[in-house]
Design a protein that fits this description.
Layout (H helix, E strand, L loop, with lengths): L9 E14 L3 E3 L2 E3 L3 E3 L7 H14 L4 H4 L12 H14 L2 E11 L9 H12 L6 E6 L5 H4 L3 E12 L6
Length: 171
Amino acid sequence: MIDDRPKPDYRVGIGTDIHETESGRPLMLCGIYIPYPMGLKGHSDGDVGIHAIIDALLGASGNGDIGALFPDTDPQYKDADSKEFLAVVRDMLDDKGWDIVNVDVTIQAQAPNLASVKGQMKRCVSGILGINFCDVNIKAKTNEGLGDIGEGDAMAATAIALIKKKYKRSL
């Protein structure tokens, strides 16, 4: 028997984000609040992890970037919860016929130590994206004291995402 169904169309995207730290602002990373005296400056909540994931998904699907979709010049996004942005992007990809296969994120922060909260981050991201916990990976790295990140003046994230085209069954 010949399988004449189209083969899956896979695409990969990469996203990056960086924000300065700011005293007294809540620290949000990959959708969770982390008790720490410094948060991230940003028009929204400054969540570099979620922002990098959004850009990776938008890049993979050919739908631009976070700044075009949620411009920092629009007052409706002031102090917005980045988890809501990620849910919008998830729905957009679903509507366009894409399934999210996996997401891998590296967070660069000299402090705080994120080892104890990586599981919570994975749970949050996988829950929003509607994918298995094991299909999300979160890594945390320091900058070994180098540059703005190493001096604690900024935090950054890089994410990569794999998506695949959904099969359409014909009758």
